[in-house]
Amino acid sequence: MSMAGNLRKVKDLSRVGGLRKVARLAQRRPRVDLSHPARSPLGSSVVNCVTYRDGIRVPGCGDLVDTVERVRKTGDGFVWLGLHEPTDDEFAGIAELFDLHPLAVEDAVEAHQRPKLERYGETLFAVFKTVCYVEHEELTATSEVVDTGEIMVFLGQDFVITVRHGRHGSLGPLREELESEPRQLAKGPATVLHAIADHVVDEYLNVTDAVQSDIDQVETDVFTENGARADPGRIYQLKRELLELKRAVVPLARPVEDLATRPIRVVDPEIQAYFRDVLDHLTRAREQIASFDELLNSILQAHLAQVTVAQNSDMRKITAWAAIVAVPTMVCGVYGMNFKHMPELEWRYGYPLVIGVISIACLALYRGFRRNGWL
Question: Taking each helix axis from N to C terminus, what angle separates 88-97 and 102-110, rounded to the nearest 10 degrees?
């Protein structure tokens, strides 16, 4: 039985000794790195559990409770526990072991939170919205452009707990990148928080670059010769997806600014300097999204204007042809009243004369409308 499976049972244990017994059972099976976009194939929410000392990964997680107690006793190193969409039962024992606040635990389990930064005693709780660009061959009125998820981070003096929600945003590659720089990782759990924030914000920039390509394509289609016939549903869909991206990016500005400027006990001042760089990237992403929103509004207004112009052009053509048709209709209507005494009824050249007059009048009207751009 895996450590992940055993942790589900900790809610039934009333003492830490019981939790220690559950954690020891994890040693019967080799640890498996389950860092990937989907849920664990073992049917558990636990993705990984790693201990770091002096920035170097300690082989094996061993007894979770013993490891945490040893780290706290020596003040050396920290534990990084990664979870993916845990349930209340799976998270209960972990919350008890690390003394996590119930409100933060509830937010981490339920998800669907706004990006934020909260402090509960000695623990820092941060929420990040992750985004992913959804590839598509052609943008339609129903295309999904942006997919969102969440990463919650519990940060203490000697632990980091990451809770991930969604189909993307795996932290496996990020963990490997951090492990390749032990000097940076040795600065403590705040390094992990910065790496996650930097990773999330960089992904914002990647998504905005991809969305810009879709906007450019829509803009090109709208301003072509037949732009009035372009599907406005694509523009509305892009605006909806851009709104989803905006909800992830804009609220994160205040938490990142706090991490970069305000003194926080669990965040080393040296790490705060790195958060300023994250804030710069986040500002760039916010500005891009704001410009995209304005550009889409302009494209939509231009499209509506093109539709109006096309409708006016059609109405002018219809009016012109109606005026041309009105001439023979009027003449034929007059001579169709069947009065006995009418001029030219008995005249030999009356019929050719009337046809000639109708033809000349229609031709004159056609040339006049053509010259004025109505036809």
Answer: 150
Q: What is the pLDDT of residues 317-359, one digit of tens each?
A: 888 888 878 878 877 777 766 666 666 666 777 777 777 888 8
- Asked whether 101 and 121 are in contact (CB, 8 A), the reply is yes
Tens digits of per-residue pLDDT, 54-86? 888 887 666 677 778 888 887 788 999 888 988
pTM of the model: 0.72
Q: What pLDDT shows up at residue 283?
A: 94
Q: What does 63-82 look like in DSSP terms, one character per residue?
A: -HHHHHHHHHHHT--EEEEE
Q: State the Cα–Cα distance between residues 254 and 282, nearest whole angstrom.
A: 11
- With tokens 């996590």, the residue in question is 100
Residue 15: exposure state from Cβ atoms within 10 A (0-12, 13-18, ≥19): exposed
Of 97, 86, 89, nearest to 20 (Cα)? 97
Rg, the chain, Cα only? 35
Provide the H-helix boundaries in the chain: 3-7, 16-24, 64-74, 88-97, 102-110, 172-179, 182-185, 189-222, 232-249, 253-261, 269-335, 350-371
Q: How many CB atoms lie within 10 A of CB 330?
A: 12
